[in-house]
Amino acid sequence: MKLRSKSSILLTIALLAGILGLLPPDGVALADTNPATSGLESRCDVERNVSTGSVAGLASAAPGETVRLKSVLVLDSGQVYQDIVGRPDGSVFYASVIELLPIAAGDVTMDMGSVSLEINGVTTALTPGTQPSTTGYVLDTSGGQIRVYFPGDAAAMLADVGGVGLPSVVVDSDNTEFVVSADVTVGTGPGVTAGQLLDLGTCRASISTGPSARTTGDKIARVGVAEPAISMSKTVNPLTVAAGSLATYTISVSNPESTPENPTGPAFDVNVVDTLPAEVVPVTSSGSPLGDGDLNASGLRWNAAAHTMTMSVPRVDPGTTTTLQIKVQLLASAAPASTFTNNVTASATSLPGSAAPERAYPPVLAQQCSTPLLRPQRSPRPLTEPPSF
Length: 389
What we know:
- This protein is mainly beta.
- It folds into two domains: 31-225, Immunoglobulin-like, CATH 2.60.40.740; 231-374, Immunoglobulin-like.
- Helices cover 6% and strands 44% of the residues.
- The protein has two helices and 31 strands.
- The chain has helices spanning 6-22, 154-159; strands spanning 41-47, 54-55, 58-61, 66-75, 78-82, 84-86, 92-94, 97-102, 108-110, 116-119, 122-124, 126-128, 137-140, 146-149, 166-171, 176-186, 197-208, 213-215, 219-225, 231-237, 241-242, 246-255, 267-275, 280-282, 301-303, 308-316, 320-330, 341-349, 360-365, 369-370, 373-374.
- The radius of gyration is 34 Å and the shape is rod-shaped.
- It starts with 5 loop residues before the first helix and ends in a 15-residue tail after the last strand.
C-alpha cells in the first residue's frame, strides 16, 4: 500500500479539526467569548399600580386590572451584534430580538399599542417595521406578537445568510437592562374568579454574539386573581328609645383577611346607602337637625327627598373594617309601642374610579335593626314635624 505524504496527512487533520470546530456537540452552543453577552440574563416582570397582595406566591391582580408585562434582557459592556439565521425549512429569523408573546386563548388581553422600550430606565424610540434597521430599534407586531429588533443592516445580512453577525450597538456598562413592556388587562368574564392563576404572556430574548447566537428561553408571567368580599353589619344604641329622643346607628363595612383558600383584594368605591325609616331624622353631633345636602360627623350626606344617608368609601383593604355612625332623633309623632326597621346597603367595584373594565359587585344588605318605641317619660324637646329644607 502506498503511504500518503506527511503534508497530505497534516492537511487532512487540519480540515477535520476545522469542521469539528464548527459543529458543536448536540444541544450545546458554541462558547460565548463576547463580554457583552457571555453573562446573558433575562426576566419576565409584572408591574402593578393597584393590587399589592399575592396569590399562591404570585402577584395578585383584580378583575379588569391592567398590569405592565416586561421582558427584560440584561447585557454587559461590549459590542452587540445583529445577525440573520437560517432555519432547516429555509426560513430565516433575526438573532438579536426581545419578544413578548400573548396568550393564544385566555382571560387576558395584551395591548399592542402600548409597547415601549427602555434602556436602563430611559425610553428609547421604536420604529414600526418587520426587519432590523440601521437607524435604530424596530417594533414588529405582525402576527399578533411583539418583537423589538436590535439595529442592523437587513439587506447586508440577507445577502449573506451564512455569514457572521454584523455590529449592532455598543453597551456602555455592565448589567444594562433592555426592557420591552406592554399593558396586559385581566378579564372580567365569569371564568375569572378569586384564586384563579392566569398566564399573562411569554417573555423571550435572543442575541447574536457575533459568530453565534444565544437565546434565554421562554419565561411565562402569571398572576393570581384576588377579589373583594365585603360584608356589613348595623347596630343601634340604645335599643329602646322614647319618641323625641336620640339614637345612634353604627354601620360596619368589612373586607375579610386574604387567605390561600380565599384570596381577597381591596374593595373600591364602596357606596353606602342608608335609607332611614320615616319615623326618624338625622341630627348633628349636638342634636340639631341636619340640613338637606349636609354631611354628618362620619361624612354621610343627607338627602331629605329620598330620606337617605349616603357616602362613597374610596377603599376598604383586606382585613379591615370601616365604621360609620348616624345620629338620629325619633319624631314626637312616632307611634308609641311600635317598631320599625332600618336597613343599609353597600356596593363595591374591583378597581378605583369608573374606567372600564372593572367588576361591579351587587349591593350587600346589613342586618335589620328593630327599635321599640315607648311612651316618652321625660325627653328633649321633640320635633313636631319632619324638618323641611
